[in-house]
Amino acid sequence: MPRFFHSCARLLATASLSLTTGARAEPDSAALETRWQGEILPLMETYCHDCHADGMKKGELAIDRYDSISDMRQHREVWKRIRDHIRHRLMPPLDEDQPADDEREKLLAWIDDAVFPVDPAKPDPGRVTLRRLNRTEYENTLSDLFGLELKVRDLIPPDDSGYGFDTIGDVLTLSPAHLERYLEAGRQVLDRALKPGPMPRPSRHFHGSKLQGDGLHSGGGHYLTSPGKARARFQASRAGRYRISVSASGTMGANTPPSMELHLDGKKSHQWSVAAPLDQGRNYQHEIQLQKNQALEIALAFTNDFWDADFPDPDRRDRNLMIHSLRIIGPLDGPPPGKPASHRRVFVERKPGEQDRAYASRVLNLFARKAFRRPTRDGEVTRYLALVDLAGADDIEHGIRLALEAMLVSPAFLYREEPQPEPDNAEHIHLVDEHSLATRLSYFLWSSMPDQRLMELASRGELRKQLDSEVDRLIASPRSREFVSNFAGQWLRLRDVSAAVPARREFPAFKRKLQGDMRRETEMLFAHIIRQDLPIARLLDADFTFLNQDLASHYQIPGVSGDAFRMVSLKDPRRHGILGHGSFHLLTSYPLRTSPVLRGKYVLENLLDTAPPPPPPNIPQLDPPSHQGDRSSLREQMERHRDDPGCASCHKMMDPIGFGLENFDATGAWRELDNGKPIDNSGELTNGRKFHGVEELRKALVTDHRSDFHRAIASRLLTYALGRGLDWYDKPAIDRIVTETEAAQGSSRALLRAVVHSVPFQYRRGDS
Q1: Helices (DSSP H) in 590-728: which residue ranges?
Q2: pLDDT of 73 strictly over 50
C-alpha cells in the first residue's frame, strides 16, 4: 500500500453520515476529461512518455495503456505508485527534465480527483475483516476474564504481521495447530482459576530429597541405611488439628520391617512399622494439635537398623528406610478454606432454592457476556448447557467447567465479532453497535476485553455520549501500558531492539543490558507524552528523557545514579527527542557500522510516512570499517555508491537525513570522527532546506514537516486500531484526524480522540 495513502487524514464520526470535511467534492466526468486533455496529458507527454509510453515501459509501466478514467480506476494500484513517485520526486529521474512545483501539484490534484475520488457526503469506512485475538490480546483477555496474572502466550503459535502490526485481521489466521493449542491453554487456565468440588485443606509438602538429616538424598527421596533422622521445620497458620502424612517404604531385615518414629521438637510422638516394599510407597498418618503460629521441628527417625550377611534369605539381609515425602495438612477443624477469587468470579453465589440447571444457565450467561464481549443471543447458552448435561457429573461445577472449556475455543471468544443489520450489502454503511464500539476501544488502548464500566455504558447505550471521557480513563489506567508496548513497540520497531547487537570487537564497551534500557527509555517517553497530554510532536524534540545510571553514562550525561529510571532534563540538545535515543541508533545501524540509508529510511517511513521504493536488485554492500585499505569516510563511500542516476533519486531522500545523524555511532554514543576523519553532518532535504547536524535536522523536521509527522502517526494509529491496511478511501478520515490534532496544538489526547471518533472506527460496511 503506497505510504501516501497511509499519510493522509480523517473524518469525524457523528450520529449522521452527512458530514462535511475539507475534502473537495467529486468533479464530474466531463470536467475531469477536459482537464486531462488540456492540462494533464501534455505534462505526461513532456515528462513521462519518453520512458513509459509509445512502446517504452521502463519498470514495466506503460502509461498510455490507460486510455480512460474508468480504466485507470480499474488499476488503482498502478496509479497509487505513479502518484507516490511524483509526490516524492522519485520521477522523473534526477538526470531528466523536472516539472515545476505547480506542475507537480496539477498532476497530483488530477490523479486524486479522477482516480481516487472521495465524496464527503458518503464516507466509506472500509472493510472489516473478522479478527482473531493475537497472542498478546488472548493472554490479556484471559487474565482480565479470570482476574489472574496469566502467562499463556508461549503456548500459542506466533502471529504474523501486516502493515507493520500484529493486529491485522487478514494475517491472523486460525490453523488446526492454533485450535489445539487454544484448547490446551484454556484447560490450563481453567485448572488454575477454578476449583470445583470441596476445597482441600491447606498443606505443606516436603519431598524426601529436600529433607535435612542423616540419610542419602536420591530421586526417590531420603534414604536411611543406618539409624538416623530426616528433619523439616513447620509453623502452624492457626490453632487446630493437623495431619502428618508420610509416604515411606523400606527393605525387610530378617522378618521385621523398618520402624519409623515421629519426633516433635525432639520428643517421640508416634511410631509406625513400615511394611511397604521399597518400590511401593505407602502413606502413614498421625494427627497432632498445634497452637496458632506454633513452630516445631518434625523428625522421622529410623530406629531398628539390621544387617546380617549370613541370613538365609538374601533379600532380607539389610533393613533400610526410604522416606519419599512428608506432608502436613491442616488445620482440619474449623471452617473449610474458601474458594479463590478467580473461582468466585465465575461461580456466583447460588440463590436460595435454585436448581442445578437454572444455576448453570445463570453462570454460563454471565460468563458468556464477559467472554464474548456482548449480550448472549437466543439459544446460544442452551448449546453449552447441553455439555453440562453430557458431563453427567454429581457436582454441577464440574459440568459447568466442561461448558466453559468449550466457550474458550468458541469463535465468539477467539474472534472479535461485530453484528451487522445488513450483511452481504457492501453499500450499506452503519454505525457499529455500542458493544462492538466498546470492544474496538478497549483492544485499541488496552489490548484486552472491555471492563465492567465500558460494558455497562454500552448496555445503556451511553458509551458514545461519554466517549472522550472514556478515552481519558483508559489512557490513565495502568492497562494502557499495553498500548505503549504494542503500538509504539511496533510503530517505532522497539520490539526489534533486543535483536540489534553491535559487534563486540568494534564496540567493546557496549553492554548488552543497554538494549533493554534503550527500549525502556523510548517507551517511557512515549507513555509520558500520551498520559500528560503533551503535543505528540514532542516525541521529536522533547528536552527531557528517562534514564538510569548505565544509560546516562553511555550518553555521557552526569548526575544520574542507580538502576531506577527517572526523568532527566537534557541540557545537551543533541539528545532531544527520539533522534537522540540509543534505541533509534541501534535499530538503524549494522553490527560494525552506522547506516545513513537505514536511518534516513526509518525517519521517512516511520516518522514521515514517506517510504522510498525498494532498492533494485544486485546493489553491492559497502565495505565495513577497516583500519587497513580504504580510509574513506562512510559519507565518501556513499557518495560514490549513488553515482547511478537510478539510485540517486531515492538516496537523495534518505541519505541527507542519515548524514545529519552520523555523529551517533552504531550504539548511539556520540563521536566526532569517522575512520579518522571529521564527520561531515551537513545535508539538504528535498524541499531545499539545508542543515548541519542533528539539532538543525530536528528543527527542520519539527517546523517544515510537523503535518507530515501528524499524518504518519495518524495513519499508523488507524491501521493498528482497525486491523487493516489503509486505502485511498481513507484519505478524508486521515485528513480530519490531522486537522483536529493541529487545531488542538498537536495534543496527543486530541489525536487519540480523533481516531476513536473517525468514520472507519465508528462505522462499517455491510460486508459478509
Answers
A1: 596-602, 634-641, 645-659, 693-704, 706-722
A2: yes
Please give the Cα distance from 89 to 732 (Å, whole number). Answer: 24
Give the whole-angstrom CA distance, residue 529 versus residue 525: 6
Give the whole-angstrom CA distance, residue 476 versus residue 272.
62
| Measured distance CA(619)–CA(625) in Å, rounded | 19
Say whether pLDDT at 566 is over 70. yes
At the second CATH level, the architecture of 203-329 is Sandwich (2.60)
Contact 248, 261 (CB under 8 A): no
Q: What are the two backbone dihedrals, phi and then psi, of residue 673, each rounded to the nearest 5 degrees?
A: -120, 150
The mean pLDDT of the chain is 90
Is there a contact between 525 and 546 (Cβ–Cβ < 8 Å)?
yes
Sign of dihedral through CA atoms 281, 286, 287, 290?
negative
Q: What is the tens place of the pLDDT at every residue in 646-686?
A: 566 677 778 899 999 999 999 999 999 988 889 999 998 87
Q: How many helices (H) and strands (E) does the chain have?
A: 31, 23
Residue 127: exposed, middle, or buried by beta-carbon count in 10 A (0-12, 13-18, 19+)? middle
- Beta-carbon contacts of residue 668 (< 8 Å; ≥ 6 apart): 518, 554, 555, 581, 582, 583, 584, 585, 586
CB atoms within 10 A of CB 324: 19
With a pLDDT cut of 70, the percent of the chain lying above it is 91
Region 182-205 average pLDDT: 93
- Tell me the per-residue pLDDT of 691-724, one tens digit each, with 9 for 90 and over: 999 999 999 999 999 999 999 999 999 999 999 9
Asked if 368 and 376 touch (Cβ cutoff 8 Å), the reply is yes
Separation between Cα atoms, residue 532 and residue 763, nearest integer Å: 29
Q: Which three cell numbers stand for residue 108?
A: 497530483
> For residue 5, with 0-12 CB atoms within 10 Å meaning exposed, 13-18 middle and 19 or more buried, which class applies?
buried
Confidence category of residue 22, pLDDT binned at 50, 70, 90: very low
Which of 97 and 305 is assigned the larger pLDDT? 305
Contact between 84 and 4 (Cβ < 8 Å): yes
Contact 719, 164 (CB under 8 A): yes
Half-sphere exposure of 390 (CA within 13 A, CB side): 10
Angle separating helix axes 467-476 and 434-445, nearest 10 degrees: 30
Instruction: Identify the three-state secondary structure at position 177.
Output: helix
Instruction: Output the pTM of the full model.
Output: 0.83
Beta-carbon contacts of residue 101 (< 8 Å; ≥ 6 apart): none
Helix segments in 29-163, DSSP class H: 29-35, 41-47, 49-52, 69-74, 76-87, 101-115, 135-146
- Which pLDDT band, with edges at 50, 70 and 90, does 259 fall under? very high
d(CA 317, CA 309): 6
Alpha helices in 419-577 (DSSP H): 434-445, 452-459, 467-476, 481-483, 489-491, 513-531, 538-541, 549-554
User: What residues contact 267, with CB distance under 8 A and at least 6 apart?
Assistant: none
Closest CA to 492 of 606, 401, 613, 391: 606
Work out the end-to-end distance of the chain between its first and last CA atoms, rounded to an integer number of angstroms. Answer: 23
- What gap in Å lies between CA 336 and CA 493, rounded to an integer? 52
From 43, 50, 141, 58, select the one nearest 100 (Cα to Cα): 43
Q: Cα separations (Å) of 519 from 246, 551, 601, 679, 720? A: 51, 11, 20, 27, 20
Phi/psi for 354 (5° steps) reads: -70, 125
With cell 553532518, the residue in question is 681
Rounded average pLDDT over 608-634: 64
Locate 747 and state its grid cell: 495534543
Contact 733, 10 (CB under 8 A): yes
Bigger pLDDT: 589 or 130?
589
Q: What is the DSSP pairing of strand 282-290 with strand 228-235? A: unpaired
Q: Where are the domains of the chain?
A: 24-115, 203-329
